[in-house]
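Sanity check. The docking grid for 5'-deoxyadenosine depends on where the pocket ends up, so I'm generating a full predicted complex first rather than guessing from homology. Inputs follow.
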Amino acid sequence: MTKEWNLEQYDTYTEAPAEEPERQFYYMAKCRKYVKELAEKLGHAPTCCVTTFGCQMNARDSEKLVGILEIIGYEIIEDENADFVIYNTCTVRDNANQRVYGRLGVLNGFKRRNPNMKIALCGCMMQEASVIEKIKTSYRFVDLIFGTHNIYKFAELLFTTFVSDGMVIDIWKDTDKIVEDLPVERKYPFKSGINIMFGCNNFCSYCIVPYVRGRERSRDPKDIIREVERLVADGVVEIMLLGQNVNSYGKNLENPITFAQLLQEVEKIEGLQRIRFMTSHPKDLSDELIEVMKHSKKICRHLHLPLQSGSTRILKEMNRRYTKEQYVELADRIRREIPDIAITTDIIVGFPGETPEDVEETIDVIRTVKYDNAFTFIYSKRTGTPAAAMKNQVPEDVVKEGFDKVLKVVQDTAREQVSRYQGMVMDALVEEVNEHDSSLLTGRLSNNTLVHFPGEKALIGQIVNVSLDECHGFYYIGHMV
Ligand code: 5AD
Ligand code: SF4
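Predicted complex below; grid placement will be based on this.
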């Protein structure tokens, strides 16, 4: 999968080019020299481990980091006892932050035993000033910190880290820049995420994303199409278009285009078999999109449509800009137009001021919409967001009770929903050998449900027909037909 990148020309430059991405290729050439010398000293290629927390966006960002690390000569491994460890962090909920701090302690132990080891932190958590302060005082052994807006500068920052003592910190508040054509190394050869936009303008009152990912910026459709074409030529059959709110894609481009129009363009790419996207904000989901999905041969039968709460009063406090009735009507319209679609969602329990009656409203929506899956989260107070300043935070035991109730209904309705495919034969993209039983393969259906079935490893990356024999809640056991 790794392409050969010719960095030789940049070796001869004495000064860094001002233009991107050339400037980063220049620094990659410089880093490569440094890593080569390190390899001679160590007697082997230095190892690197990139650990990703959080969402698909972060997973894609990590692939960009790995792309550069491979070019400059690191051997990528899964073990954090490596010569270089990067944590690509998430800060959507506090438990992700706590996990990072906990694991940094372990890394410190590794670093004491390996004086060559370098540690870098990046991602959403690094966009918070309080986090940087904490790392500067309590985690002095970290070598490099950068944020979400300057990830394209990774090679340059890495080189600075190689040649300087002490902690290198580079955090930007925001950016309007999108740098194209940097290397990426995919985790899966046959499927890939693709950023279509960055940032978010919605400011849901509980959410830190607009503060750490900045304002919404859409990529030029031509750049997106070119990237998909290249990926398809390189063996990709399924893509996932990524954005915090894909339904507002293209609105701020010089030549505005809708998300539905972009999908139609992507659909035309020959050889591409499946198109997914994430995430849709209900307030911006258009009839045009439903129409395009309905007639598409490639867009998967899955829609992730975050509800967050079923109570109109709480939705207003959350600044979601739809009511319970509008959401239910939208879900109903989608189901009427595309009957075989699976709808999944995100739900937050314990938002400030939420009463048991509000939780019942959420449960009512779950029962009405009948989700194939729902991610249920306990509200997490994020400093700097409007909800964090709300006076009426809900006591922990009340939240827990509501959460357990919601989870039970989610599990029951999902089981019922997923089991409606029992006995059917469907297309599955074979993704990997089953984690727990190596005689089984794991495949993903168009509706995003997983199916495990006996088969040969050689089928990974292919789309095969599978009979869905036994429903086990959120997944199936089946056999190939
Ligand atoms: N607390 C709990 N869940 C949150 N999410 C976003 N912010 C918070 C928060 N402060 C959830 C939302 C979103 C998903 C990605 O994370 O449900 O859709
Ligand atoms: Fe956060 Fe709302 Fe933006 Fe999603 S749409 S990233 S929940 S602010």
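Relevant for the grid: The CA atoms of residues 372 and 418 lie 6 Å apart.
Also worth noting: The pocket of 5'-deoxyadenosine (ligand 1) is lined by residues 92-93, 206-207, 306, 308, 346, 348, 377, 379-380, 382 (CB under 6 Å).
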